[in-house]
Structures are given as C-alpha cells and as structure tokens.
C-alpha cells in the first residue's frame, strides 16, 4: 500500500473528503482542460472508479497537480503543487496582455470505490495569483525555482463582510453550483514571452495543528502584446520561501474562523495578505 492509499483510507474513515483545484481555464473564448493526476493510479481502490471527467495524460497547459492540500509551507510542492510536471506535448495558451483568464474550481469526492468530481467547498481565505517568466522559448523544463514569482492579483473579503468570517470572494468565485469563476487580468504592460501563471487558494478554515491549507496550480502561457514592462526585484518572491507560518495572514488559520464566539483576531475587515505587494504592470 502506498502513502496515498493510506491517506485516503484514513481520511475516508474520518469524514467525507473533498479537495481539489483548477479544472478549467477560459481564455479569450477558448476552454483549456486542467491536468489533475494520480487519480488513475489508485490500483484496486480507484483504478476503475474515476468519473471526474478528465482523461489521464491529455496534453494540457496546466502542470500536473494533486487534489490534496499542501500543508508544509517549506515544501517544494509550494511552487506548483505535486509534482508540477508538464504533460507530454504540453501546451501554452496564447493570451494578450490585458485580457482575462477565468479559472473554474472543482473538487474530488472519494469513497473506497469511486472518485467523483464535485463542487468546491472551501470559502474562508484569500485567492492570490502569481506569474513567473520562463527563461527559454517555452516553459518546458522550467520549474519555477528561485525568486522568480511576482504577484499580479489578490482577492480577500467581499465589500459587505463585517469581519474575517466573510463572505470572502473565494465563496462567490469558487464555491458551490453558482460559482462565477475566478477572473484575473494579465497586466496590460507585461512584456511578451512565456510565463507560468500560479493560482493559489488559501483555506484558513483549518485545524490550528495543521495550519492553513494551500491549493496551488500552475499553467503555461504565451503572453502577447506590445508591452515592455517587467517587475523589479522588490516584487520577486520564491516558493517555497516567501511565506512563513508566522505571517499574520497565515497565523490566524483555525476552525474558529467559522464557528463559535468571534475571536478578536477575526474581528477586522483588514486581511493582511501574505507575500510581496501586487505588481501593477498596467499601461
Ligand atoms: Cu479541501
């Protein structure tokens, strides 16, 4: 029995499981399928139970990802999930600087014999988007190592939220049947080239013992346009590296964000986003 089978069995015994990530990207009218993996490797338990709708190993713009949350903030999985590899014949999506990418989230529900695609459940915590320039003519072989990531957007509470119990934009954009999807504009002044885009959902409704849950997926883009801007070193961050458990926006993770008496730490509408400032590459 491998590690993942063991995790599934233990978790199944404890409660229903539903974790996930970006299933599709919509870019200028084209829908790109994501690349969740390892679902097809569960042998006697899950080998024939996959009904998640995405066949294994299709060429994709998305780096492979695994549905389980990342808890270890110092793990290499903080870069582009586990294992973050490109598919064979991986694709790059063409996107004009200034245009919008909409990511749609789903989760996977597990029993001992089935794997089913389901809706995204989490709704407490921020959404952050980073990009990294790929040094070659494509992103193949580039794994986002070092201080190469710059933040292009972050989303926290909705305007009507009275405190950190929300509602958060995660709920309206990602969660449930009526989720709008998560729109992100590529900075209009960004110079053309190959880039990884890294979507990150942080679930703050998590046991204090485990800390926040990170859901991270990367995809390959070919940015076009007439821009010539690129962020300076003060905007650059490493994953892993830039986050710590003591960061104010991460240290407040706990199940109490949703239940019981409102703790003082949640009684604010100012959420301290982790990571570097957002780079405003607009022209
Ligand atoms: Cu989850």
TrEMBL record:
Secretion signal span: 1-18
Keywords: Carbohydrate metabolism, Cellulose degradation, Disulfide bond, Glycoprotein, Hydrolase, Polysaccharide degradation, Secreted, Signal
Catalytically driven reaction(s): [(1->4)-beta-D-glucosyl]n+m + reduced acceptor + O2 = 4-dehydro-beta-D-glucosyl-[(1->4)-beta-D-glucosyl]n-1 + [(1->4)-beta-D-glucosyl]m + acceptor + H2O
Any single Gene Ontology cellular-component annotation: extracellular region
The protein's Enzyme Commission number: 1.14.99.56
Gene3D superfamilies, alphabetized: 2.70.50.70
GO terms (BP aspect): cellulose catabolic process
Cofactor(s), names only, from the UniProt record: Cu(2+)
Source organism, top-level taxon: Eukaryota
EC class name: oxidoreductase
Gene Ontology molecular function terms on file: cellulase activity; cellulose binding
Annotated ranges, domain Auxiliary Activity family 9 catalytic: 19-251
Major localization listed first in the record, in broad terms: secreted
Entry domain remark: Has a modular structure: an endo-beta-1,4-glucanase catalytic module at the N-terminus, a linker rich in serines and threonines, and a C-terminal carbohydrate-binding module (CBM).
Summary of the function given for this chain in its UniProt record: Lytic polysaccharide monooxygenase (LMPO) that depolymerizes crystalline and amorphous polysaccharides via the oxidation of scissile alpha- or beta-(1-4)-glycosidic bonds, yielding C1 and/or C4 oxidation products. Catalysis by LPMOs requires the reduction of the active-site copper from Cu(II) to Cu(I) by a reducing agent and H(2)O(2) or O(2) as a cosubstrate.
Protein name as annotated: AA9 family lytic polysaccharide monooxygenase
Gene source species: Hyaloscypha variabilis (strain UAMH 11265 / GT02V1 / F) (Meliniomyces variabilis)
